[in-house]
Input
Amino acid sequence: MNSPIRRLAAVVTLLFASLFISVTYIQVVSAKELEEKPTNIRTLYKERSRERGNIMVGNKAVATSEPSDDLYQYLRKYNSAAMYAPITGFYSVVNGAFGLESAENDYLSGSSDELFIRNLGGLLTGEQAQGATIETTINAKAQKAAWDALGDQDGAAIALDPETGDILTMVSKPSYNPNNLATHDIDKAKASYKKLNADELEPLLNRTIRQLYAPGSTFKIITSAAALSNGWSADSTANLTGVARLDLPETTATLPNDDGLPCAGGTPTLRQALEKSCNTTYGQLGMDLGQETLSEQAAKFGFGQALTVPQTVVKSVFPSDLNKPQLAQSAIGQFSVRATPLQVAMLSAGVVNGGVVMRPNLVAKVTSADGKTVSEPSPEEFSEAVTPEVADSLKSMMVSVVTDGTGRPAQISGITVGGKTGTAQTAEGQNPDVWFTCFGEKDGKKIAVAVVVEDGGRLGSEAFGSTVAAPIAKAVMEAVLS
Amino acid sequence: MASARTASPRTGRNLEAVLIAVAIGLAIGAYALVGLGVNDALPPGMLGYGAGLGALALVLHLAVRRFAPYADPTLLPMAMLLNGLGLVMIHRIDLGLGKSFTESAAFRQLMWSALGVVAATVIIIWLHDHRVLSRFTYIAMAAGMVLLLLPLVPFIGKNINGARIWIGLGGFSFQPGEIAKIALTIFFAGYLVTARDSLSLVGRKVLWMQLPRAKDLGPLLAAWGVTLAVLVFERDLGTSLLFFGMFVGLLYIATERVSWVVLGLLLFVGGALAAWQLFAHVQARVDFWLHPFRDDILPYSTQIVQGVFGMASGGLIGTGLGEGSPWRVLYSASDMIFASLGEEMGLTGLFALLLVYALIVERGLRTAIGARDGFGKLLAAGLSLTLALQVFVVVGGVTRVIPLTGLTLPFMAAGGSSLLANWMIIAILLRISDSARRPAPEADGPLFDLPVDEIPPELQDGSNSQGDDRDQYGSGNDQETVVVR
Output
């Protein structure tokens, strides 16, 4: 009977071998795939139970992880509620993550490879990985000023440091309270999300980088840049028209000036055309410059380029295959030209920074839980949109807009301010989206701002960029420079 | 031969004592880790736990030292280690679920451990010779059948978690199948040792295989029928696989005929396929096994899926004891304890545990090879095989090698009946190994009163031509040898 027992022992060995294999398969070979399955609540619990790093604005934490004694070990708290919501986004146990919480999740949750080595000790002692702290580039004072100035109007305000690309304010309205989404009360979190998601005004949308608007007359900065780069000059009337109403070729349609009057008596300089925001002058300029030149100039400022700040920015659009009338419309920021507020801010930023557009960025520094710097992005050049000479001319033209033209409401004594208004018709019978983009400069310190107010804001159909948007931009500049 | 035995042979008892100390040390260490992991402090009950476990081990060790001094020295420490680590994991899951000590599963498991050790001690002390058990062959059969089918009896049978393998009396539930396992092994061994001659007779030849005679098929068919009844009426694939596997295995050992194995496998596969065709609950089990992640199945296959997720989160070295969240799996302390262990102890820990199980089985089969009588061989092999099959069915179920069934992981899973039965199995194995390793005595007179028909022909003339040429375990000698003076 012994040899069958030995053979049976061999069979038992095979049975055990199959167990060794299956265990290895589950715990090593397919472990990662299993961990990443969307139905794996364990991975979610594990991640959600981590102490996430703080999100800082200056010395103040706008998002923190508080110990919590319920389902998960830590509750995410947003200390300024709606004002910083577009920046922080939210980290919800049922609704996923948004904003920086999503874009910088690897750092905040501590799962980033760069943090791995630091957490190696913890891996062996079984301690939970701790998230890294994200310091943002936001200027708390400017953020508050923009938030208050925008008031109950819907729209967006974004400010940049033109020399570094640092994003100083990021305000989007209407906003939401991220705490309602981050709550561990699952039913409440789900209901809040459903409500916000169904809201027509789209409070969850970060308008500064995720919404495309018709840029209106702010696009004339690009048309001016293209003209100055192609033989036109700021104070010459050569090759410019100033008629009250521009006949468009290939069609019976015309393009009028806003006030229905000729521009500077019919013979404007480029500077005067920008000051008065003359549609006919720029419409003709657009047709003279041509599709390719305008499109290239727009791309140099960032149109059509992929950007992350680190949240992904929607690409601004300059249309292709335009006929002449469409080209004239596009040159004044109408037709199907679309831009994010960030893109419009980058126009002013490039102009005041000698023609160089810096890559916009929201994260100043990443610090691990033990206080070491993990990442500190240095300013990075995004593009050279125009030559320094063209930038100088453009800058002085935009200053003239504020001293003598449509941008007067943005004047601040003691500060050099240049800007451009915009009033974009969105649809027949609808109030316009109004714009103001500007730069301010004082003692070498610079700021670039873009503000858009939807649907005419408080003034409705009577709204202009100068009356509604410019005061908001002014408040932001004052907060930073005064 | 006598001259070779004058020096007193090594019993291995001191080695056993050292190994037990190591096993208990490991268990206490694990207990401390759980405390540190969950509460950041050494658990207050640590010394009590260690002392309790140590006392249990000491009682059993002393009984073995006194009454079965030549028993295999590794079986007891390995069982102790598994029992101890199982208690730790159950305690850990209690903590995760926030249960107080008195209502905790660990407390009950500790009581059952004590009962199991007491039962093992009683067996070691009272059962001087395992062959006494062969006298109860048919009583064991009757008892085994009754125990196995008891859960089907109305009023006392209970359907828990979809399987009808429990009986309940008052507030107390018990899986009689666990004890039936031992009774039926005794029956199979006793029956096969007498019937092996007729069962090995050759019938017709089909293809390359010599089939048994048709009239000898009765017992195989009977076992098959009972197995299918268990599968269909008690909805317990694990138990049926266990019994049938053990029966076929023992049939093979007794007759040395592969044809029995082939026939048995064909019958089992055929029966299982038929059951799969006919019964929705069997189909559901198979679906949970093959496609647990499919959207329409996911709501029902939570148990296996969460178990697999738990093990995956453990990875190579585990989260560490007390650092994971094994309680999120359904039945994490009982049916799914292997997944819980995998999460916190990782692949490393599971390999170690599987190796311990494999070693227990290996020592059991070695005992079978070394046993000096046919009944002992079959009994030891049968008991080892049940352990091996049970580990395979449980771990294979949890890791998706086979469909998941409701068996318990021997010594580790929360469940009193299983713990009791497995300690009894260890005790019987210790007893058989003692007689297998015991040097032949010097005194005259028959050592065993074998039935005459079990004495090999070459010994019946009174001379010991074969002799006992074994040192500790059987040599490669395939001839069954029985020492008779």
